[in-house]
Write a structure and sequence with these properties.
- By secondary structure, this protein is an all-alpha fold.
- The chain contains four helices and no strands.
- The longest helix has 22 residues.
């Protein structure tokens, strides 16, 4: 089992790092051009993958985490927590009451 893990872990890391490398925007890559990073990851699976994951990409702290407040991206909000959605429901109810005076 340990022999299999010694083969699969570097392989999985190199596949992940290679896909992450080629899908990263050029302005988010540090220290070397993208093709050199991709070659490094492919030729040296363990060392290249670790290098890419540690030093190759600019990281934006808190930008992608939905659990930390203050991210730079706008994240999805549940309807019962969204004040705009709740306001639209109130307006819709008022509109329905105004159109139907009987209250049916």
């Amino acid at each position: 089992m340990l022999r299999v893990l010694m083969f699969l872990v570097p392989l999985a890391m190199s596949v992940y790092a290679f896909i992450d490398c080629i899908s990263t925007k050029d302005e988010d890559i540090r220290h070397m051009p993208k093709p050199l990073w991709a070659i490094l990851v492919l030729l040296f699976p363990l060392v290249g993958s670790l290098s890419w994951l540690i030093a190759g990409k600019k990281r934006h702290p808190g930008a992608g985490s939905p659990w930390q407040p203050g991210g730079s991206r706008r994240r999805w909000v549940a309807p019962d927590d969204n004040p705009e959605f709740l306001k639209s429901l109130d307006e819709e109810r008022k509109k329905d009451r105004d159109e139907d005076p009987k209250g049916d």
